[in-house]
Design goal:
The complex is a heterodimer of chains A (236) and B (519). In chain A, β12 and β13 form a beta hairpin. Chain A is built from 8 helices and 15 strands. Chain A is globular. Chain A has one domain. Chain B has 519 residues and is an alpha+beta fold. Chain B is 38% helix and 18% strand. Chain B is globular, with a radius of gyration of 23 Å. The chains are: A alpha+beta (236), B alpha+beta (519). Chains A and B meet through β14 of A and α17 of B.
Chain lengths: 236, 519
Amino acid sequence: MSNYVVLSPETHHDTRVLTEPGKTQADVVQFAMTHPLEFRNIQACYPIFFSKSRDTGEFFPLALLGFEKNENLFITQGQWHASYIPMMIERQPFLVGYQQTADENPNPVVSIDINSPKISDNEGQRLFEGNKPTDYMKGIMAKLEALHQGHEHGKGFISALTDNDLLEPFSLDITLNNGTSNQLMGFYTINEHKLLELDGDTLANFNQKGYLQPIYMAVASYARIRDLIDKKNALI
Amino acid sequence: MNHSINRVVVVGGGTAGWLSAGIIAAEHYSSQNDFELYLIESPDIPTIGVGEGTWPSMRSTLKKMGISETDFFRECSASFKQGTQFYNWTYGKGETYSHPFTAPHHFNDKNLAPHWQTIREETPFADAVCPQMPLINNQLAPKDITTPEYAFNVNYGYHLDAGKFAELLRKHCVKQLGVKHISANMTAINSTEEGDIQSIETDSSGTIEGDLFIDCSGTRALLIGEHFKIPTLSKKKYLFNDSALAAQVAYETAEDPIQSCTLSTAQSAGWIWDIGLPTRRGIGHVYSSQYNSEENARAELLAYIKDTAGEKAAEKASIRKITFDPGHREKFWHKNCVAIGMSAGFIEPLEASALVLVELSAAMVAEQLPANRKIMDIVAKRFNEKFSYRWNRIIDFIKLHYILSKRADTAYWVDNCRADSVPESLQELIDIWHYQVPWHRDCYHIDEMFPSASFQYVLYGMDFKTQINPMSRRADREAGMQAQAMFVENSKIAQRLAASMPTNRELINKIYKYGLQKI
């Protein structure tokens, strides 16, 4: 179970983080959440699909990493083999939490998951030198900021997709070289038929808001499914 | 006599009027044709607002009309209805049984009822065969926030605020379905030489002409009753209840659980309904004035409210009285006029048949809207046959609950079992079911009101004994083994559902906050 606490130089001056992707169990996940501002990088390595939050039912985009729960086909022998690592993986074990303040607006604060397997006492990157964040920590904070902006932009993107019925359920039957079959279910994809029917005004609006390019990047990213199947076949 | 039918006029704007308008307009309204639908609603007459429970059919009705389920929950104080739970109906000694909306496990191809007879002492019928029961018993929802609009994990209909529902339908009909809303009082009816209704005079909107008129004017039945004088067939000899006392009761706290079913608790000469909306409970006592005084009925209702909601709630309850003559019109479609809703008939709400009859009537008008006046009489004849049949099936099914009761504490319960108070069609079924369990063969029509699953739930919920030995035939022995495996499977599915579904209140609050997805 994750346990996020507010990050502070006083409490966490000796804390270190294992930064190599794939080194710990924390990265062995079937998918990583993403956002449209990251699609350009994601689509170069991973297929982009959509799923629903268990908690709110709202859609979010994701980079698919495996065909089963707790399967990440990009990790072999503790190493993540890909030219780009999703930001949601890299930001671990940190996130931006919100602290209740006296006035109306909750205060954003960086929090750390003290139960994360990425945390170590004797190896990995330090977070603070004295009271000052290290370069690593500064990089994390920049990523968290970029993630925040990406997810805000992503909310409008998702509304644009659902309002125009541009998502559809998707299931894929995969037969591996040894004859066993896997079914990928519960994900959603861009409805290309509906996409082709969009009128000029909607397209112009999408383009202006920065939604059009990521839609086509998501469509193009399906070809990456082949990479995942190849990786899975290589394991059997 | 050969003109085409393009203009439909609905008279009356309660739930029946707007629901009928929506169903018919959703089928026919288009910029490509000449179809027009007018709805005349009196600004002076308040709607009655009974019928706060629906069948699962309401999901597809709303979906077809293009209403978002999220909007429906947000605007109609709607909650999930997964069936009915009955208290004190069999012996009057605190016992309970359920009639859930989900059919028994594997019902399409396997009849578990005979096999349940061997375990009837250990497990109630509904619990043995229906995976929905733990959800019902724990006020859990039939789906979760990731389940799309109108889809379900287990079957459900709704409880709703009838006044708010009519309002949502009105907005949707006018904005999306091209329905022309006329707020005026009807002052006169003009007839053609053949006796059809030609037009309706109003006090403030002139003359409204039409090809087909739908009478949704409620118990006043302005067209079918006052104008055409089609008589009502009383069904009081079968169904004794003719009065109701209705109250709205506040929850004690905003977090009180919302029940998954309509609760029906038998009384000395009637029964009390208890419907949980997110905002309040609707509680009422429907009884027979011949067997119960209003004073005593009121006392029984207040005692129920006190028991279930506390003394304060009982003190605060404002109670409204409704009387009705249980029965229906001799015919519903006469010349160019169709009665839908309470103008067509009304009986006690034991199986929430009011709204479903509106849905079915309007759907048949919509589907079979006669192309011209010439064939209308044929459609009318078929409509009348179908709905007379349906009313009789509803009456049979409601009466079944009374004749299975073993209560003998009042004359009401005793007289309900008198042979002359039981429709012949129902008595025949009972005679058969003493030796065979209800099954698909017992339903004559493809669109039967109550499937044999419903009969099973009521019969075996109320301790009815069918004299069979499921292991007596050779072919049945293997089936018996299969059935035992299905009981086990059902119980596993039930446990899994109960572990994963949110409470009704949690899910409804999430729908308010996030909405349900369309896919």
